[in-house]
Write a structure and sequence with these properties.
The complex is a heterodimer.
Chain A: E1 27-31, E2 37-42, H1 46-65, H2 68-84, H3 86-95, H4 100-120, H5 124-128, E3 130-132, E4 138-146, E5 149-153, H6 159-172, E6 176-180, H7 187-198, E7 206-209, H8 213-222, E8 228-231, H9 236-246, E9 252-255, E10 276-284
Parallel strand pairs in A: 5-6, 5-8, 6-7, 8-9
Antiparallel strand pairs in A: 1-2, 3-4, 4-10
Helix pairs in contact in A: 1-8, 2-4, 3-4, 4-6, 8-9
Chain B: H1 17-28, H2 34-46, E1 48-51, H3 59-70, E2 84-87, H4 92-98, E3 105-109, H5 120-133, E4 137-141, H6 144-149, H7 152-166, E5 170-174, H8 183-195, E6 200-202, H9 214-231, E7 236-238, H10 246-259, E8 272-274, H11 277-290
Parallel strand pairs in B: 1-2, 1-8, 2-3, 3-4, 4-5, 5-6, 6-7
Helix pairs in contact in B: 1-9, 2-10, 2-11, 5-7, 7-8, 8-9, 9-10
The chains are: A alpha/beta, B alpha/beta.
Chain lengths: ~290, ~300
Amino acid sequence: MTDRIEVLKTYKTYIGGKFPRSESERTYPVSDSKGNLIANACRCTRKDVREAVVAARASFDGWQGRSAYNRGQIIYRIAEILEGRKSQFTEELERTGTKTKNAVTEVESAIDRLIYYSGWTDKISQVFGTINPVASSHFNFSVPEPSGIVGIIAPDDSPLLSTISLLAPVLCGGNTCVIIASEKNPLPAVSFSEVLHASDVPGGVVNILSGYRNELVDSLTSHMDVNGILNAVNDENIVKLTEENGSINIKRVYHYTAENWLDEIHESPYIIHPFLEIKTTWHPVSS
Amino acid sequence: MSVQIQPDFSYTIPIDTVGVEERVSRLNKRSIKKESKLLALKLALSMIDHTTLEGKDSEGKIIQLCNKARIPYAPLPDLPPLAAVCVYPTMVATAKKALLGTSIKTASVATAFPSGMAHLSIKLADTKFAVEQGADEIDMVISRGEFLKGNYNFIYDEIAAVKEACGRAHLKVILETGELETLENVRKASDIAMHAGADFIKTSTGKVSPAATQPVTLVMLEAIRDFYNETGQMVGMKPAGGIRKAKEALQYLVLVKETLGDAWLTPDYFRFGASSLTNDLLMQIVKQLTGVYQGIHYFSND
């Protein structure tokens, strides 16, 4: 068996806890930094966006309804599973042209970032919630709640680390999400969906699509059932489109770009905050 | 009106289950796009029997339901109204009043819905009460227990008696196909109902799972076609229960078109018994008009 033909992996999408191919049945070639073909990825369409949003909505109540502590455990579990598959992701990053040393750093930072945000799940209400002094005999308090479904537009650089840096704070706040993976380097994000699947993340909480951004961003950002957009692509057209479409149903739109995803400034509760709604309750008390 | 020769119901018409499923799946592959899709969505909307059949129903809820039937979606005032509102007999008067001056029919379930486990005299009284209250259409249930025992004359006589009690109101006969076990039984129950005077045959109460399915609907549509060829009478069809998505509704319309033809593609001969289907149709209509995928939170939950 010396002349063995290598089995190339088919990179599929991740929707509702399953790995379907794109509804379009189309793929597009993904190359390494030298221009060599390394794999084909699904070229998703607006119908895949629609399916992903339906899945994200269906899983939202369950994910929001879990205790914050349990959400923290699950995010920690993602880190654990990723730790066990470090070498696979290092190799995948290397194939896309990242140097070995940088690939190792990226994977390790991604794991640490998940650990960082797993700790925040049951602390955000203490930090962003308040007890408000009021003039009547009421106990008045404000607590954060998740916005709902957040669409994440991932950038091309540091494809694994950037995706996780965007995903973790969104999940941490109790939101579910639909991710449009990097167009140029989608493979690490798509492989990461297998990690999500193997950890305790319920199906539909994270949905990952690959394809051409100009075919996906419009239908995701205009979708009336999406409550927020986290955009990390520094492109004038995408920013404009996101702002315009976001205004249709007043989505929370947050543009978050980075020079260097390894930087620790990307670990902050203020990245969780944009996708939280503050609910204030007036509770009558006897004086 | 009634057919003189009653067929021998002990004879079973064989049904090829695999063939039925095959045909359904082939018809499901048909693609309807753009203008045709919009027209089909609006047609489906106009065929809905907007239904609430819950123990907790109140007058307020019925009035809201009727308002939704009149104006399904306020931002699009040109949309057709729904076909009917379907309620319990005690709510008929409320619905009738709320629908005054519209073309929307008031339908009522009767005959000890949903089980049908009551004496004929009670069933007839139930039916008469609903008609007196102003119901234009009566949805009755057959006695599935008697049917499965092979007591076909009992079923025939029961339907005929209820039909008489209905007077001028239209009669829809619910077969509750989820309890009939086989497609042969569905066909037989359809034939009995039509010969006994049903104006519509209907799949399910919505209280038993499985409710409406496409293979069952196809068998019933074929029974209607054969009955029409035999007698020249057009009988309507109403799948009910479990139809929630616009896409499924369009698939049902294709089944009707291909089995019975255009004459049946009107609210007079085809209805959907549904409640959540209305909003999905509205969401798809708005999507067709604006190009933007819709969210359920922007549509009234009535």
